[in-house]
Amino acid sequence: MEKHVTLVGVLHIVYSSFGLIGAAVLFFLAGALRFILAHLYGNNIIDPMEVPPELMQFVPFILLIAGTIVALRSVAGIIGAIWLLKYREWARIFVLVLSFFSLLDIPLGTLLGGYSIWVLMKDETMRLYAAKPAA
After folding, report:
1. How many Cβ atoms are within 10 Å of 15's Cβ, its own excluded?
2. Residue 122: strand, helix, or coil
3. DSSP labels for 40-94?
4. Is residue 74 part of a domain?
5. Which of 8, 59, 102, 118 could pair with 109 in a Cys bridge, judged by C-beta atoms 3.0 to 4.6 Å apart?
6. Which helix (H) or strand (E) holds 21?
7. Are the beta carbons of 126 and 96 closer than 8 angstroms?
């Protein structure tokens, strides 16, 4: 069962790292949105009257909020996975909670969440975490 726990930890680190990349893209888009639209307006690709100015103030804010949520969830996943690999009981529970949220991220998050829940809820895994000393 130790191999499964190690695989869960590594997969959460990799998955959360991709989440950090996604958050960086959202932050970039939030900052670059005005430049992108200025380019589209300048080349007559979009008529300035088609996009309301209120929308231009609202969309970057939404992108920043989404990027922050994705970044926080990704950092939490990396921290939880690192401590999961160090056999801390609180990290097992923490990664379980993150795994339930990952079920909503179809399709890869669903696979990772389901596998993580299966591994971390097994009696063998619970005994493994109870037997490891919390140094």
Report:
1. 22
2. coil
3. HHHTTSS-TTTS-HHHHHHHHHHHHHHHHHHHHHHHHHHHHHHHHHTT-HHHHHH
4. yes
5. 102
6. helix 2-42
7. no
pLDDT tens track, the chain, 135 positions: 889 999 999 999 999 999 999 999 999 998 888 777 777 767 777 666 676 767 777 888 999 999 999 999 999 999 999 999 999 999 999 999 999 999 999 999 999 999 999 999 999 999 888 886 655
| Structure-block tokens of residue 112 | 């990772």
Is position 135 within any domain? no
pTM comes to 0.84
Domain of residue 102, residue span:
2-130
Residue 119, in any domain of the structure: yes
Total of domains in the chain = 1
Q: Tokens for 36, please give them.
A: 């992108």
